[in-house]
Each structure stands twice: as C-alpha cells, then as structure tokens.
Specification:
Strand order of the largest sheet: 6-2-1-7-8-10-9
Bound molecules: S-adenosylmethionine
Distance between the termini: 48 Å
Helix content: 40-55%
Largest sheet: 7 strands, mixed
C-alpha cells in the first residue's frame, strides 16, 4: 500500500504537470519534496491536494510555488577561474573556427550568466556578429534579466575594467549598458519538455542539472550534444562533471568544458 502522504504528493506532481507542463518527477525527489512541504506548511495547508487547489485560485501563491521550485540564485562570473578559461582558451579557439558564434545560456535565471558572456564577446570584438540566446523556465527571472539592473553584491567577481565599461551606476544599483542588452534574446523554455535549437558553438548550462534525476540529466546531455555543432562546447557548473561523456559524443576539453566530437 502506498502511504497516503506519498499519494498526496504524487497526485500533486500529476496536477502540476497537467496544468503547467512542469514535471516535478524529473527533479530529485527528496530535495523538491522537502522544499515544497516547507512552503505548503508555511502557507497553512495540511495536504498537497488543498495546496494545489489554493495555488490555482491564488496567482501570488502559484508564483511563490514557482519561485520555490526554481531557485534563481546566480552571479556574474560564477566560479571566476572557469570564466577565465572560457575567455582565454575556449572562445578564441571557437572564434577561429567560426567568427559568428551562436551561443546559448540555458537556465539563465536573472541574466548574470549571458551578460557575463556578452561582456567577454564584446571585449573580443565578437559580440556584433554573434548571437546569444538565453532561456529559463521562470518568467519572473526572465523579466529581471531583461531589466538588467543589479545590486552591487552580485558584481563582486566582475573584473573592475568590465564594471567600468559595461555597467552604469545609478545610486545603489548597477544597470547593464544597452549594447549588451540588445545582444541577448531572452525566451521562456522548459529544458525538460521543449525542443532545442541547433548549430550552437557554445552552450552554457550551469547549476540546474544538480536538481534533476539521473535519467533526466542523461536525456538532457543527449539533447545538448545534438544541439551543438561538431567542435562546439558545453560549459557546465562546477559540481556537474559529466560521467562518461563519450556516451553523449562529448569529450572532456578543460575542467567543466566538453567538446562535441
Ligand atoms: C540556480 S539557477 C542557475 C542560474 C545560472 N545558470 C548560474 O549558474 O548562475 C537555476 C535556474 O534553472 C531554472 N530552471 C529550473 N528548472 C528548469 C527547467 N526545467 N527548464 C529551464 N530552466 C529551469 C530556474 O528557473 C533557475 O533560474
């Protein structure tokens, strides 16, 4: 017999999938269930069934749910030495092969990642002829990414010369210059459900795979590899080393960078 509590949660998963297309079953269960149970209890609902009903009637509760399940934490230059490797080794090599780079920041959250990339491409004089796509499942995060206004603390790892060139300070806030804003196409996309564009030179997908089940991860690596050009590079997060990359036609290039064969 399945305990009532488990059935309550699995029905919630089905309902959320039916209404939103978001499949919570592809996220690591213990973590997700703990986060959502805390949210449900905080809002005073005894069961996931009553919580789902309330969420459908109350938009702000639904957005609170989305917020809790997505975890939008991001930073410019997250793990700075990896971005240095991208700047010094990976991008020059990719640009030698094709000067018009097609890049994608997948699960871009509030935009720090695609803007970090845009700064580097601009500095290398590659931005004008390149394309940067940036996608996330969360409309709220995408809205903030498009506004491109940040607190000083999220700039802590940005090299000072880049702060000077690519941000306008407005009292306590820092606004990204229009040149970079215009270079990025933001779009809503569910990595676990939607189809991908292809012929990418570079895909950056960092700090979201950690939330997915092994099965979901494996499917995604296949999808990413298919979306890369031969010789294109996948840049992953600093806890997200790929186990046996060869099975996806990827080969290790530098730590946390993989090249499509
Ligand atoms: C921790 S942030 C990572 C942001 C950025 N990539 C970085 O490393 O700083 C994780 C992001 O993944 C997004 N996300 C979660 N599930 C997703 C899915 N199925 N499809 C697309 N984005 C998803 C969340 O909305 C969130 O913005």
């Amino acid at each position: 017999m399945i305990p009532l509590e488990d059935r309550d949660y699995s029905q919630f998963i089905e309902q959320v999938k039916g209404k939103t297309g978001i499949d919570l079953a592809q996220y690591k269960e213990a973590q997700m269930k703990r986060r959502l149970t805390t949210l449900r209890m905080k809002n005073g609902y005894q069961t996931f069934a009553s919580f789902f009903k309330a969420m459908m009637e109350n938009e702000s509760l639904f957005y609170e749910f989305l917020d809790r399940m997505t975890i939008n934490v991001s930073e410019f230059w997250r793990n700075p030495n990896r971005w240095e490797t991208l700047r010094q080794a990976i991008l020059p090599e990719l640009a030698r092969r094709s000067p018009r780079l097609k890049c994608w920041s997948a699960a871009c959250s509030t935009g720090e990642e695609p803007y970090s990339l845009a700064m580097i491409l601009s500095e290398m004089n590659l931005l004008r002829q390149s394309q940067i796509h940036a996608t996330d499942i969360d409309d709220g995060a995408l809205g903030r990414a498009k506004q491109a206004v940040y607190m000083e603390r999220s700039l802590k790892d940005v090299p000072p010369a880049y702060i000077k060139r690519y941000f306008k300070q407005e009292q306590l806030l820092y606004r990204i210059v229009d040149e970079l804003k215009a270079a990025i196409q933001f779009r809503k996309q569910n990595l676990l459900l939607d189809s991908f564009d292809n012929h990418y030179d570079l895909i950056i997908c960092r700090n979201v795979m950690i939330y997915f089940t092994e099965e979901a991860k494996s499917k995604l690596y296949h999808k990413f590899a298919k979306s890369l050009k031969s010789g294109g590079v996948l840049f992953v997060g600093s806890t997200e080393q790929i186990f046996s990359p060869g099975q996806y036609e990827l080969e290790p290039l530098e730590t946390f960078f993989y090249r499509k064969k």
